Amino acid sequence: MKLVTNARLAGRDGLHDIEIDGDRFGRVAPARGPAGDVPAGGLTRDVPADAADVLVDAAGGLVSPPFVEPHVHLDTTLTAGEPRWNASGSLWEGIAVWSERKAALTRDDVVSRATEVLRWYAANGVLHVRSHVDVTDPGLVALDAMLEVRERVSDVIGLQLVAFPQEGICSFENGPELLEEAARRGVDAVGAIPHFEDTREDGVRSLEIAFDVAQRYGLLLDAHCDEIDDEQSRFVEVLATLARRGGLRDRATASHTTAMGSYNGAYSYKLQRILARSGINLVCNPLANLCLQGRFDAYPKRRGLTQVKEMLAAGVNVAFGHDDVMDPWFPLGTASSLQVALVGVAAAQLTGAAEIDEAFAMVTDRAARVLGLGDGYGIAPGRPANLVVLPASSPYDAVRRQTRPSHVVARGRIVAETPPAVTRLTWPGRDPEDVDFVRTSDR
Ligand code: FE2
């Protein structure tokens, strides 16, 4: 039995000790005092006799379940500039550039780039990742490579794969057959891209096909939905209604939903009810979509984002995703969920203190709901022993100061350690001192 000691847990007073038994959590109880006193309710049995039993002393830092990436494209990652840069910066040129790069795709190419970014995710404490994989490729090269990667990383990262028809289901030759073949080969979820299809009718039909495949193979569904600044792109109502009527409900997700940024008030109000009733999840990708949307606008220029604040208030589960790490759609990124949360706070105007905590939940608990992790996530007895230790006093503090996890624990083992960053400041009239960006009145 090992212990994570002196852990600060969101929503609970005081510090706690967390037992880890093999690859599972044991009990969680009030921490022993500095002198070894055992408080009421503390771990009076199996208390460690020496420091050898302490896996990590969190020293009062925030201990959280790991970060969860609900939306990334690992088959396209690290290809920014290949074979050319996306000069206009639009989603559409990004798809055209990727189509050129896709012609040169090999198994080794996909495996090495995806694995490199998954290592970055693990280093940042992201231990669950949902990746879309382009299946509009007759050879399904990327899909087979990613199925192999999913297996290889499974000791550290739980990777979900979505069969993503980047160039359409109805509008791409053999699109339905390729989607079905991807389901047969073992993806976790079925995707769609209704706003990209040639006609509105094709868009609706593509969602019906995706739901049919998901239901026949017992899979989750996650569609790129309304990723366009067209107020008439309203496929999310179709997705939600299919999810409700077919019973998929919270096993279905609409990603991007940027057209929401252009919907009028009357339709937005109607949509809140449709989405809340359906139980579906939404994933907003603020880094990519702040860059991609509004490219056809003169000023005033629209943000082109999911109505995050309004949908949360309506009771819809919304999570934040990265979408792209250095690819034709977004040239930056280090696979950091805290960076996504910070940009999400600004983009969705979640600036109340409770809203900043909520942004943290959108890259942890809420994202876990998108992936349907259930009892496979969270710090509680019997659950997989996955956690991050953040040198921060609260989720708000972690988002603000962008604190890298000091420790990442996966399946009961430390897989990443980050020494604290120390800045030494020499200021006129004062001795040199460390600056950690904590407000004096908060100490
Ligand atoms: Fe995406």
Automatic annotation (TrEMBL):
NCBIfam families in the cross-refs: PRK07572.1, PRK09230.1
SUPFAM superfamilies on file: Composite domain of metallo-dependent hydrolases (SSF51338), Metallo-dependent hydrolases (SSF51556)
Amidohydrolase domain sequence ranges: 55-416
Gene: codA
Database matches in Gene3D superfamilies: Metal-dependent hydrolases, Urease, subunit C, domain 1
Protein name per UniProt: Cytosine deaminase
Pfam families assigned to the protein according to its UniProt record, in alphabetical order: Amidohydro_3
UniProt source species: Actinomadura nitritigenes
